[in-house]
User: Which sequence fits this backbone?
């Protein structure tokens, strides 16, 4: 009986771990067919005989992103949309550029853990644990340093130097998704009621209204 319980527990554990990432591929590759009208969990595959090397490559990641925006950063994502050959392989990556003191604002990836490597500059990075602790775990990273943001947790980066900074992030999903907290809360369409947000943030409704106008 004890052996059976252990076996069932291992099966349950392996199932829960499998659900934390994209499904494993069942063939050598499944290059995304961008013109397919089939709706499924992922992207439909091209006919293998039509696959070319260009389906597995992307050019331009050496080019800095335009950081002339409100948060002074730019994320250049390379996912299965940009490299069709990533389809079903469970990974993607991003280049993140930061102007001096620019931020990648608090956000979360619902489908991926992120590992970030600083290529140039210095970044303050951090993530917040789930309720009820809401503990901030943060660190200053310099060139060559690496930091991990666990799947689903709110995290951020800030350039703490006077020059530009750049990082490369690897993500454990071909489509990690991103929920930028401020945009989701204050920029939803239709808008979340100011009454709800005023009570949630414990501020006056006028502050909520002014904030929503920014998004």
Assistant:
């Amino acid at each position: 009986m004890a052996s059976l319980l252990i076996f069932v527990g291992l099966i349950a554990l392996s199932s829960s771990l499998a659900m934390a990432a994209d499904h494993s591929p069942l063939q050598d590759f499944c290059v995304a067919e961008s013109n397919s009208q089939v709706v499924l969990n992922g992207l439909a595959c091209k006919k293998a005989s039509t696959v070319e090397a260009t389906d597995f490559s992307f050019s331009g990641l050496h080019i800095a992103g335009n950081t002339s925006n409100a948060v002074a950063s730019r994320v250049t994502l390379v996912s299965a949309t940009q490299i069709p050959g990533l389809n079903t392989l469970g990974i993607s990556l991003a280049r993140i550029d930061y102007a001096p003191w620019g931020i990648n604002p608090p956000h979360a990836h619902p489908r991926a853990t992120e590992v970030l490597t600083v290529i140039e500059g210095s970044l303050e990075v951090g993530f917040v644990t789930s309720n009820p602790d809401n503990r901030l775990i943060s660190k200053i990273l310099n060139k060559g340093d690496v930091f991990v943001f666990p799947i689903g947790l709110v995290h951020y980066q800030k350039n703490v130097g006077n020059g530009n900074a750049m990082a490369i992030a690897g993500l454990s999903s071909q489509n990690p998704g991103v929920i930028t907290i401020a945009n989701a809360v204050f920029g939803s369409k239709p808008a979340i009621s100011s009454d709800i947000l005023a009570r949630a943030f414990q501020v006056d409704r006028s502050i909520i209204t002014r904030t929503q106008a920014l998004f």
Notes: The first helix runs from residue 2 to 18.
